[in-house]
Amino acid sequence: MAEYQNTTVSSGEMTQRFIEFVMMQAQNAAFTLGQIPHPQTGKAEVNLDMAQVLIDQLAMIQEKTKGNLNADESKILAGAISNLQLAFVEAIRKEPSGKAAVPPEASPRVEQKPAPEPEPEQSDSDGKKKFVKSYGS
């Protein structure tokens, strides 16, 4: 197990680490959306379920850090989520068949809507809020 280092990290370094984290998660999501080819096969592989999980995680981070990020961090996180949501919708349209395919008549409606809004938060019996979000699959 790695030892915890009790060192002071500058604000600028924390910002850089946060942005690197967001970009790494966004890159993983882009990979699962088939935007980045597999390094061994050179072919794009699509895994919509994993892509949705990664996008949901970024959206959860955005919600949980609201008011605690600087302007650069907020802008990069929001931009990554927005770009990935659009790529997700495009990947669903390209899906040849299966559970995630969107019927052609539904496509224009999806394209005209802005990025999906989170569903209202629901409370558990112990008073904790649940984070629920769907991208249409």
- N-to-C SSE string, H for helix and E for strand: HHHHEE
Shape: globular
CATH architecture assignment name: Up-down Bundle
The CATH first-level class comes to: Mainly Alpha
What is the count of distinct domains?
1
Distance between the termini: 38 Å
Strand order of the largest sheet: 1-2
Could you give the count of β-strands? 2
Please describe the biggest sheet, giving its number of strands, its sense, and whether it closes into a barrel: 2 strands, antiparallel
Q: What portion of residues belong to β-strands?
A: under 5%
Query: Residue share in helices?
Result: 40-55%
| Multimeric status of the protein | single chain
List the SSEs and their pairings.
Elements: H1 11-32, H2 48-64, H3 71-94, H4 107-112, E1 122-123, E2 129-130
Antiparallel strand pairs: 1-2
Describe this structure in words.
There is one protein chain. The longest helix is centred in the middle third of the chain and has 24 residues, at 71-94. A hairpin with a 5-residue loop joins strand 1 and strand 2. It contains four helices and two strands, in the order ααααββ. Helix 1 packs antiparallel against helix 2, helix 1 (11-32) packs parallel to helix 3 (71-94) and helix 2 packs antiparallel against helix 3. Helix content is 50%, strand content 3%. The chain has 137 residues and is mainly α. It has helices at residues 11-32, 48-64, 71-94, 107-112; strands at 122-123, 129-130. It has one domain: Up-down Bundle (Methane Monooxygenase Hydroxylase, Chain G, domain 1), CATH 1.20.58. A two-stranded antiparallel sheet has the order 1-2. The chain starts with 10 loop residues before the first helix and ends in a 7-residue tail after the last strand.
